[in-house]
Amino acid sequence: MSWEQFKNCADCRKLFMKTYYDICPACIKVEEDNYAKIREFLRSLGRKSTVDEIVENTGVAKKYVVRMMDSGRLLSDFAIEYSCAMCGTLISAGRLCSKCTGQVNEQVRKMEEESAAGPRGPQVHVKTAVK
Ligand SMILES: [Zn+2]
Ligand SMILES: [Zn+2]
Question: Does residue 18 sit within a domain?
Fold first, then answer.
C-alpha cells in the first residue's frame, strides 16, 4: 500500500482509498441521504422550487444543494429556480438569465471588435512579421 492510493476527502478532509469520487464513502452516504430528502421534498411540493426553499425545508446545507445542481443531478430531474449571478432574477438553467447572457455576449462582441479594429493592435505586428 502506498500513499498514492489515498486522497483527502473534499468534504471532511479524511484520507480514504482513491475512488472515482472526490469524497469519501461516508460523505457519499451523506450526499445520497441529502439527495433523497431533496427529492422527497420536491416531489411533495409538486412545483418549481428555489435553492433557499429547499435549504429551509430539508435542512440540507446550501453547499450540498448547489453542488448537486452544479453536477446537473437536480436540474435534470426537477425544475429548480435560483438567482441569476448578475441581477438576481430567478432562473432555472445556466448561470445567468437571458437578459444578462445577452449583455455579456454583447460586451464580448464589442471587445472583439475593438481589438480587431485597433490599428496599433498586436495583429499588425504579427502580420508584418509573417510576411
Ligand atoms: Zn468525507
Ligand atoms: Zn440576470
Answer: no
